[in-house]
User: What shape does this take?
Amino acid sequence: MRKVKLGLLGLGTVGSGVLKVLRQNAEMIKRSEGLDINVGWVLVRDKSKKRAVEIDPSVLTTDAQVILNDPEVDLVAEFMGGEEPAFTYIREALKKGKSVVTANKEVIAKHGDVLEREAEKSGAGLYFEASVAGGIPIIKTIKRSLQANHILKFMGIINGTTNYILTRMSEEGSDFNAVLKEAQRLGYAEPDPTADIEGLDAKFKLSILSTICFRNQVPLENVYCEGITKVTAEDITYAQQLGYGIKLLAIGKKNGNRIEARVHPTFIPLSHPLCAVRDVYNAIFLEGDAVGNLMFYGRGAGDLPTASAVVSDIITACQNQGGYHHRTGMDQEDVIFEQNWVSRYYVRMLVYDRPGVLGEIAGLFGKHGVSLESVIQKNRGDDASLIFITHEAHEQFMVRALEDMKGCTAISSIESMIRVER
Ligand code: NAP
Ligand code: HSE
Assistant: This one.
C-alpha cells in the first residue's frame, strides 16, 4: 500500500466532487490500486465559506505556497479555473517535480505546450482528462487506445451548458436566460457563463482535442468560434420543420497537412446520433483510419462526472511516477490551418414580398458559386421570410454572397446563417 499526499487547489463544484469520490471509493482504490490517497491541503479563497462537503478546517489554506513548498505533497490537483493564478501554480508544481492533474481547459489550451516542456524537464507528469468532456474518458482513449490510428475527423458536443440550454429551448420552448440560470445552479456553467454561451469553453476544449487527435499543436488563434447567443426560437422551429436539430458542434478534420478546427451552432439531421444527445450530456463522434467510426457519450459537466475523470488521472499519475509519456509523439508537420472549409448552410432572411425577389436573391447566391438545395417562403407581404438550405460551398464564397446581399433592396435583413452538417 502506497501512501499519497495530495494538495488540492480549489473546493468548488469539481473540488467537492473529487473529495466525495475519494472518500466514497477509498477502500476500493486501496484494494484494487494499492493507493492510500490522503488530502493534505486544500487551497481556497475564503476559508469561512460553507462547503458542499465536510472538511477539516486545518487542511484549508489561502496560501498556495504552503502546498507547493510542502515536500510531502506528491501530487497537486487543480480546479480553481481561470488562467491565473492557476497557470503559475501548475508551472511551479511541475518545476518542483510534483505531478499535476487539472480540469482547467483554459490553462491547457493556452499553455499546454509550455507545461509539457516543464514536466519533461522535471520528470513530473501532467494530466488533464477532465478538461475535455467532463466524465467521458476521451483523452486517455485517444492517447492510449487509438494510437494505431490516424484520426481523420471528429464532431463533438463538448459543452454541457449550451447543450442543456439548446435542449430546453428545443423541447420546451424555454427562455434562454432562465435555462442558463438553471445550468448555473446545477454547477454546469463556468464561473463566468459567457465562456459557455459564446463558445469559448468549447473552443478551449476543441484546441486540446484536435492537438491530441491530429498530433500537432492546434493553437487557439486557429480555432474558429461562434457561440449560441444568436440562435433564435424561430431558427429552432424551422430546423425542426426541415428535419434538423441545432447543436453547438466542435468539428475537427485533418486532410493531408490541412487541419480544420471550428466550433459553431450547427444543423444536424434529427436521425444523426449526435442529435439524440440531450441536456448536459456530451458526445464525441470520431473517425479513425483503422477503427472507422466511434462514438463516446456521457455527462460533460457536474461534480461527480468530472471527479470521475480527475480521480482516474490522480490514480494514473501515482502509478506512472517516473514513467510519464510526454508529447514526444507529436508530428509537428508544416500544417496549414484551413479557414475556407466546405459546408452546407441554412440562411434565413426577411424580404420584401414582390415578384422577382426570389430570382434576384438566388442570382446573388449563384454569382458567388453557392448553389441552392431548397427554399421555403413563410408568410406574405411585410412579414415574408425566405429560408434557404444550400448545397456544399466554400465558406468564403458564402460570406461574400451574404456581404453582397447587404446591398440588395429586396432584402430587409439577413437574420441567421447556420452551418449544416450531414
Ligand atoms: P468553482 O465552483 O467556481 O470553484 C473554484 C474553486 O477555486 C473555489 O473553491 C474557489 O475558492 C477556488 N479559487 C478560485 N480562485 C482562487 C484563488 N485565486 N485562490 C484560491 N482559491 C481560488 O469552479 P468549478 O466549477 O469547480 O470549476 C473549476 C475548474 O474545473 C474550471 O477550470 C472549470 O473549467 C473546470 N471544469 C468544471 C466542470 C464543472 O462541471 N463545473 C467540469 C469540467 C471542468 P472559494 O470557494 O473560496 O471561492
Ligand atoms: N462549463 C462546462 C460545460 C463545464 O458546461 O461543459 C465542463 O467543462
